[in-house]
Amino acid sequence: MKFSPTIAPSILSADFARLGEEVEAVVNAGADWIHFDVMDNHYVPNLTIGPMVCKALRAHGISTPIDVHLMVKPVDRLIDDFIESGASSITFHPEASEHVDRNLQQIRDGGCKAGLVLNPATSLSYLEHVMDKLDIILLMSVNPGFGGQSFIKSTLTKISAVRKLIDDSRCPIRLEVDGGINADNIGDIGLAGADTFVAGSAIFNQSNYKKAIAELRKKLDTDS
Q1: In Å, how far are 27, 164, 173 from 33, measured between CA atoms?
Q2: How far apart are CA 153 and CA 117, in angstroms?
Q3: CATH of the domain at 159
Q4: Residue 195 sits in which domain range?
Q5: Is residue 191 part of a domain?
Q6: How confident is the model at residue 221 (pLDDT cuts 50, 70, 90)?
Q7: pLDDT on residue 145
Q8: Most buried by CB count within 10 Å: which residue of 13, 15, 103, 121?
Q9: Is residue 1 part of a domain?
Q10: What is the pLDDT of residue 146?
């Protein structure tokens, strides 16, 4: 199954003093999803936002899919909290889970899309026995924990390998990439097989969000 290109601005790069307005602005500018980075100062060396912020965005009127990326350990309690707070999809790192299969089913049972996140050096072997329980595979193209990092080019090879796994499985799984994506490299990332693109500073650090998102889409169209 082929998905249309999906642009998911990461609110890690947004102005947190006016987060509701920022999210509303990128949605109006053409964002497909909102990428929601959750860090715990334990699994990764940073501390960000939690379920209350997700719930607040829903209360603000944001109806766009919220793509929650859990960089936390353990994941069990926060999965339930984010389901209750209005998440649309929840992804987590297999190294942060004692029971990967169970946590994937927990997410799906709560009505959300479920996915695994693989760091740059994480083996694809984690995917082997759970392809039928995945809606998303998220590949990190930077090491998790901070925004504004540069894209790790070797990720392109990994994207191609995961694309083959997805195609061979015949499962309807999105291939998402997060880290250092901008107008200069998004075309190559799409050609390698990704269909969902997380962009933080490439959108939120620009003066015109609509123009920034349009430029990303243009590069995908041009290089397809």
Answers
A1: 8, 25, 16
A2: 18
A3: 3.20.20.70
A4: 6-223
A5: yes
A6: confident
A7: 78
A8: 103
A9: no
A10: 72
